[in-house]
User: What shape does this take?
Amino acid sequence: MDVEKFFVDYRQEVLPIYADYVALTKVIPQQVLVEISNAFSHLSQYYNGKNSSEDKYGNLVKAHGHLVRISLDLHKMVWDEEGKLLKNWLGAGLFSALSFNLDSAELNKKYSDFLRLGAEARRHELENVGIAPEESIERYDKVCAIGAELIENIDKAKLHRLALVARFLTAKEFLSGLVLGVLSSLLAQWLWIHLAK
Amino acid sequence: MAGEIFKNRYGKDASSFKSIDEINDFMKEKTGKELPIALRNEQLCINRGVVFEIKNIRIKK
Assistant: This one.
């Protein structure tokens, strides 16, 4: 572990997933700010000239540990947000599943992969606490990539067009019912007048 | 791969930023308002466990 690795991981492991999170939610997550503060507090001790080289190294390792935690938390949070978004979208209405730019078999496969791999990643994380957080991050990363692909294939314009068609069909049904009702009442009236005589 | 959602939406590679502050500034510029700070997904992050190496320490020694 060296200080270069700390900053490389910060740029390559934390920033991309952080960017995904804020792009999805438009919110700065409080947990991340706390962890960033913890990481940089330890890093400041790495540069403290009063500390022994052993203490400096210990602080660098701890700073990196906080960085790993930020990455793990962000991956989980992105997975969670993607899951909520997809669940809402797929359960929103009759036509919502049709608004994806994917065929139905592919959509079902990818969504079930998203759910299955997400559950596996979570189980792996809980079974390996403190042992292999990087492996959990890799697993979550794969899940987040599937979620991202599904979300980016949502076609809102298509859903809008489908909603217009649905509204047109409903209006057509209502008008046909109305016309039939008026005609049948006129017919009944005519029959009553002519047959009653 | 992390960063895909951001890249698809804003056309910029997230690893080209220097810090999360730069990302926040970029988002402020794009959305026209300061991003709020909030505690989200807390069920996932409170019970997150330990990511540091676990050490065996003999307390009596």
Q: What stands out?
A: The radius of gyration of chain A is 29 Å. The CA atoms of residues 99 and 158 of chain A lie 6 Å apart. Chain A has two domains: 3-154, 156-197. Strands of chain A lie at 28-29.
